[in-house]
Amino acid sequence: MSARARLAPLDLPEFGMPEEAPQVPPAVYRRRLDGLRERAAARGWDRLVVYADREHSANLAYLTGFDPRFEEALLVLGPEGDPALLVGNECFGLAGTAPVPLRRRRFADFSLPGQPGRGAEPIEEVLAGEGIGTGSRVGVAGWKEYR
Q1: Does residue 132 register a pLDDT over 90?
Q2: Residue 76 above 80 pLDDT?
Q3: Are 72 and 144 in contact (CB under 8 A)?
């Protein structure tokens, strides 16, 4: 038995244009963060960090609704409280528009070259301030070599 395929023209349905942009409710992001906290605790992780940049923003956008347009960003999620979001100068103001509360921290090394403050606070100190240190168990989503 042989079957034959045939191409046929189709009319596309008319969907019209949306009147408003779809919005994900803040409660959805809170549930996602809470669920991630539960999974991190089940694995024995002290913190979870999520790296993002322009080309790799899906994890951060899914969890917080924030899309780092210009620079890198790092979310640090602990067992409780608002997550910390490390961003550079360009994204600092934009990060305040996220639909969930985030503790914005300006991390100048994530700023574009030539911006003021680069190298002001070593990443080790920033992470220590977020509860990550020697012996910490940290889950990681996304990465980039940092020198």
Answers
A1: yes
A2: yes
A3: yes
